[in-house]
Description:
DNA binding (chains A, B), disordered N terminus, six-stranded antiparallel beta sheet, Arc Repressor Mutant, subunit A, homodimer, three-stranded antiparallel beta sheet, cNMP-bd_dom (chains A, B)
Amino acid sequence: MVRLVSVCASLTDDELALLEQLAMPTHFASGDTLFSQGADAHCVYNVTGGVVRLYKLLSDGRRQVVGFALPGDFLGLAMRDAYGFSADAIGDVAVCSFSRGAYTALVDAKPHLLKRLHEFATHELTLAHEQMMLLGRRTAEEKLICFLLGMQQRWARLGKPSVTVPLPMTRQDIADFLGLTIETVSRTFTRLAKEKTILIVPGGVRVMNPERMLAVAA
Amino acid sequence: MVRLVSVCASLTDDELALLEQLAMPTHFASGDTLFSQGADAHCVYNVTGGVVRLYKLLSDGRRQVVGFALPGDFLGLAMRDAYGFSADAIGDVAVCSFSRGAYTALVDAKPHLLKRLHEFATHELTLAHEQMMLLGRRTAEEKLICFLLGMQQRWARLGKPSVTVPLPMTRQDIADFLGLTIETVSRTFTRLAKEKTILIVPGGVRVMNPERMLAVAA
DNA sequence: CTTCGGATTTGATCCAGATCAATGCGGCAA
DNA sequence: TTGCCGCATTGATCTGGATCAAATCCGAAG
Lengths: 218, 218
């Protein structure tokens, strides 16, 4: 099993052993749903491989992607009765799942772990505030550039630093994350490629002019 | 002193006494800045009276209001070195402030409190996800109606249920919260008033047709 | 190799909300 | 009372991104 990144870094060995006992390794095929918005929250998940799309739907079908979970990310940590969003696999995904009961018991018993989870939650909240700025006040080009730099940074923190940013999600997913349409995303990618800011490669994008991109993200 | 709502509900008496020893009651006049984005995070605040505007700025002056803090709300709980947003008083504001050192020491010592804070943070995260949906996918009219219903609900939970929703913030603040311009906010208010969905009163809005509003918020 | 179906790109046109520009409306200081 | 000075409203016009409408591309199945 992939060592649980991010949440477990500060645990003692016995705590880690306990955690691994409770962890149920599971995997999902491309497109599978881990859980749906409003469903009873049985499980908490730690992603160990692959990418998960997190999203909310409006009754008329409008969709907002609230995030993409990468290895190390924690899902369903809002200790509530029902999931606040839906999650499904983009490509094959591996997770460690914990039953809600085991999770809450463990959290009650181990302040270390709770503290780590709280840090994780506040970090998520900070990212959410940045996403609000992006959604409310940035232009289409800025949105896309911020998204690319953000993904690059996240992959880098996972030990995969590269000028080529993998983008396993569809254009529609990106559009729904950035509050745009698929056409605007596509056109903006094309424009950035034409002016040699990026190079579009299969499965992702190569950053060609990081200076310009960082200046736009400001 | 107003009893600390929301965070301290589950504390034992001795814990509460300890907390009150550490709490420094402070107040701010209208327009005063509690703290600025990027500044060293000395203090954590619990709002006890008034309303606080929380916002982020882009270098060119574009502003995104990430929230309005009401009595009971906690500010600066992201245990980090620097504040992630700025906060200033809308009208007179009373808070209990805690030094960062005292706060972290207390949190380390009292798992109860940490658990409450974590619940608070995850609730904030859920609200942030809803705000992303609103910013990314809703129309101007929907944004305004959701905002009004949300504020009404928050005042109600604080023991002030009323069909008249107080709006102490300016139109510009509302616009910057909803990702709109002040003109669009004003026009949309006027339109809703003309069709008798709301009645605009000094300092706020009276909800006249909650059924229609709830249907739009869906 | 060919065919099919979803994803993506590209083009033409439209429109919700932005921008530009007055005007109105208190509240408060002199 | 008068005159500001910030808000807020209203009107006219513009435009970035949405919508509508075809192509293209491409990987998987046969």
